[in-house]
Amino acid sequence: MTKRILLWGAPTKCDETLPFEESFKQSGNNYGNILIGSAVQSFLSENELISRSDLKSPEEANERCDHVVIPAANFLWKNFDFGYMADFLEKTNLPIIIIGVGAQTNDRTMASPIHPNTLRLMRLISDRSASIGVRGYYTAEVLAANGIHNVRVIGCPSIYTSRCPTVKVDSSRLESLTNISVNFSRRVYQHSFHPERLCAIENTLLKFALAHNSTFVAQDEVEELALYQGNESGNLQITKYFNQIDKSACIDFFRSKTRYFCNVSSWATYIRTQNASVGGRFHGNLIALTNGIPALSIVHDSRTMEMCTLLGSPTIHLSEVDEKDFTEQILTEQLHNCTFDQFEKSYSVLYKRFLEFITENGLPHNLVHTSITT
Questions:
Q1: Where on the phi/psi map is residue 22: left (φ > 0), alpha (ψ -120 to 50), or beta?
Q2: Could you tell me the pTM of the whole model?
Q3: Closest to 260 in 3D by CA, of 215, 292, 295
Q4: Which candidate, 131, 59, 109, places its Cα nearest to that of 355?
């Protein structure tokens, strides 16, 4: 039996006909968010999906909806205030399911502090759901430290975009290191475990990109996006970060090789033309893996560490490399040595767990069923 679902959270797409400044705002200031919202929309598509903008009040939500579903990102951080969402939902009597909520900190040894209003929201959801769907075990620990224990570790909903119980990565593509998709964490590098080390490694990645016919997929890098559109006002910020690269070569790369995507379909079509994806952006690499394309992630903060550990995907961890000795040759060797058996196994187990999470929270869905045991 289908349900009437208030879908409130990560966007499902942006309007690609708009200037990037406007579509970027639609994305929630990160084009990676559309992978989250689109995935949830796709496996709930047999239901009647209602957006928050269609509702004038909590009372109308009670009348028109059966459930609230929140496609989530890294909500659990001291500066993220979701009080507006808690205020609205407290006035409803609806079940609330949050999918893929994550914690964010640059120090994994401590519990991520949560804004009081966001903690109020999480406690409300805990009371109104069978379980909270969290990105990984670190997030589960953060919620447990705040007295919330009914959680299920499911990863990010964007993992399950295909709605299929298995995935196979074509590692043979690594035989040719041309047509490489790269992504950078320049704008968020201060969140990392070792900011200076990440900067040095990403400089090496750009050198690699320049030598291997690479393209750059932007998610929230507004200066690079502006440069791609002909606005050079942010050039100094770009070249200051990529300070090991000739300035002209650096600017020319981002001017001519930057790409961004307003919907998952066009992003997936692009990534399937590439032989690999490399960088510190989780979603930029995840869309590669779920489309069977090899990916190597730079683990630089609690969020990327949590997700890559859960998935068992190939990584370069900042704590395991010396930035002074991290060369293009070493990066090439890392790529050639990538294996994906563990990722494929982890995906199958997580898929079944995700299926159980959706079912126990009473959501009709179109996910393919599986008999794989956890």
A1: alpha
A2: 0.94
A3: 215
A4: 131
> Any idea what the Cα angle at residue 366 is, between residues 364 and 369, rounded to 5°?
105
Listing from the earlier edge strand, what are the strands of the sheet with 67-71?
A: 48-51, 4-7, 67-71, 96-101, 132-134, 151-153
Q: What is the tens place of the pLDDT at every residue in 86-133?
A: 999 999 999 999 999 999 876 666 677 899 999 999 999 999 999 999
- 3-state DSSP of the chain: CCCEEEECCCCCCCCCCCCHHHHHHHCCCCCCHHHHHHHHHHHCCCCEEEEHHHCCCHHHHHHHCCEEEEECCCCECCCCCCHHHHHHHHCCCCCEEEEEECECCCCCCCCCCCCHHHHHHHHHHHHHCCCEEECCHHHHHHHHHCCCCCEEECCCHHHHCCCCCCCCCCHHHHHCCCCEEEECCHHHHHHCCCHHHHHHHHHHHHHHHHHCCCEEECCCCHHHHHHHCCCCCCHHHHHHHCCCCCHHHHHHHHHHHEECCCCHHHHHHHHCCCCEEEECCHHHHHHHHCCCCCEEEEECCHHHHHHHHHHCCCEEEHHHCCCCCCCHHHHHHHHHCCCCHHHHHHHHHHHHHHHHHHHHCCCCCCCCCCCCCC
The CA-based diameter of the chain, rounded to the nearest angstrom, is 62
Pairwise CA distance, residues 283 & 179, whole Å: 18
How far is 39 from 199, CA to CA, in rounded Å?
31
- Which two structure tokens, joined as six digits, stand for 36? 């989250």
Do the beta carbons of residue 275 and residue 177 sit within 8 Å? yes
Give the tens place of pLDDT for each residue, 37-74: 999 999 999 999 999 999 999 999 999 999 999 999 99
Q: Which two tokens stand for residue 168?
A: 């196979």
Cα distance between residue 70 and residue 82, in whole Å: 12
> CB 116: neighbour CB atoms within 10 A?
12
CA distance 50 to 65: 8
> Which tokens in the block code for residue 262?
């307003």
In terms of Cα–Cα distance, which of 141, 147, 142 is closest to 112? 142
CA 286/CA 280 separation, integer angstroms: 11
